[in-house]
């Protein structure tokens, strides 16, 4: 057993716990988001002590972070007593997390393996969040499942895109047992994936249901009158995986400075060559030093995209990501 200290408050850390898990179980509030090492919300400095840090997606921590003893607490284990200084401070425009009941208003099958869930909050309740953030379903056994919110903050209903995962207990429940009008509990908002202030053109890269938070951001940008150039690249394996293309077509008609393309890695569609989505971005746009990139999808896609985008000139600090990891139970 080790002792952790943050802001003068001590807490116990078991060898089997990450520092974040230990802090939460002791009732200490630290910033966090995904709890899987992809969002960067729990970044902190280890002032004193020794730790072991698991591998994470490249780009979440910079070389400078590592040299300054900055770590992600959700992936860090103490190997001695430690003193921690949190780097992520609460901003005035951030919204507090809350747990609330929701009702399933509508279930819509969007393609062969993506279900749209529309959730309604209780009368008089509203959920304030930044476009791009996510929520967690709180299951009966206390387990949680995270899904990005696809609706804009001004929308009345919460929209989720749930992909059916082979062997995934919760996603199988969604597809086979979840009923309209059923009541569930969620906690939100969570996450560090949202639009940053800038005047640079934006590239949005979505793998599969990684489209959900990007849909939220683009709709929010449109309603707020953001005039920055937007490029949207959506990656799929085959054409049958495409969904909500009508949403993108509507954006093409109504949003100035907006371009979008669907990329397929395993099928030629309308004469378009097969490609990985990140490679198509580089082929089309070349040097990326003048862009901000928002990338959402599987961790492997984000890892490769980050590496090759930086090689194409992207400033590492202009790459923002949300990696989707899938629970099997």
UniProtKB/TrEMBL annotation:
The family database entries (InterPro entries) matched by this protein are listed as: 2Fe-2S_ferredoxin-like_sf, 2Fe-2S_ferredoxin-type, 2Fe2S_fd_BS, Beta-grasp_dom_sf, Cbr1-like_FAD-bd_dom, FAD-bd_FR_type, FNR_nucleotide-bd, MRET
Q: What is this protein called?
A: CDP-6-deoxy-L-threo-D-glycero-4-hexulose-3-dehydrase reductase
According to the UniProt entry, the coiled-coil residues are: none
Q: Is Iron found in the keyword set?
A: yes
Residue ranges annotated for the FAD-binding FR-type domain, each copy included: 97-196
Q: Which domain of life is it from?
A: Bacteria
Q: According to its UniProt record, which cofactors does this protein need?
A: FAD
Query: What does UniProt list as this organism's lineage?
Result: Bacteria, Pseudomonadati, Pseudomonadota, Betaproteobacteria, Nitrosomonadales
What PROSITE patterns is this protein classified in?
2FE2S_FER_1 (PS00197), 2FE2S_FER_2 (PS51085), FAD_FR (PS51384)
The UniProt record lists the 2Fe-2S ferredoxin-type domain at 1-90
Record's keyword terms, sorted: 2Fe-2S, Iron, Iron-sulfur, Metal-binding
Gene Ontology MF term list: 2 iron, 2 sulfur cluster binding; oxidoreductase activity
Instruction: Please give one Pfam family short name.
Output: NAD_binding_1
């Amino acid at each position: 057993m080790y002792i952790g200290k943050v802001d003068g408050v001590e807490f116990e850390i078991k060898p089997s716990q990450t520092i974040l898990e230990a802090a939460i179980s002791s009732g200490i509030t630290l910033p966090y988001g995904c709890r899987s090492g992809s969002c960067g919300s729990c970044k902190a400095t280890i002032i004193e002590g020794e730790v072991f840090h698991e591998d994470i997606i490249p780009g979440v921590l910079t070389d400078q972070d590592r040299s300054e003893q900055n770590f992600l607490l959700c992936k860090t284990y103490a190997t001695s007593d430690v003193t921690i200084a949190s780097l992520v401070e609460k901003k005035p425009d951030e919204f507090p997390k809350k747990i609330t009941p929701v009702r399933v208003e509508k279930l819509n099958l969007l393609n062969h393996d993506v279900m749209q869930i529309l959730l309604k909050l209780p009368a008089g309740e509203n959920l304030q969040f930044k476009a791009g953030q996510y929520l967690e379903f709180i299951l009966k056994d206390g387990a949680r499942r995270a899904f990005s919110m696809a609706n804009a903050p001004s929308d009345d209903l919460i929209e989720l895109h749930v992909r059916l995962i082979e062997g995934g207990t919760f996603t199988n429940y969604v597809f086979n047992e979840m009923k309209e009008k059923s009541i569930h509990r969620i906690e939100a908002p969570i996450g560090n994936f949202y639009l940053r202030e800038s005047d640079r053109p934006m590239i949005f890269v979505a793998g599969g249901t990684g489209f959900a938070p990007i849909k939220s951001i683009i709709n929010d940008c449109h309603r707020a009158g953001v005039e920055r150039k937007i490029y949207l690249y959506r990656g799929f394996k085959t054409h049958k995986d495409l969904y909500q293309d009508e949403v993108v077509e509507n954006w093409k008609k109504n949003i100035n400075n907006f371009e979008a393309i669907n990329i397929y890695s395993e099928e030629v569609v309308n004469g378009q060559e097969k490609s990985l989505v990140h490679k198509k971005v580089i082929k089309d746009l070349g040097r990326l030093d003048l862009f901000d990139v928002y990338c959402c999808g599987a961790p492997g896609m984000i890892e490769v995209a980050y590496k090759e985008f930086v090689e194409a000139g992207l400033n590492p600090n202009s790459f923002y990501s949300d990696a989707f990891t899938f629970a099997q139970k």
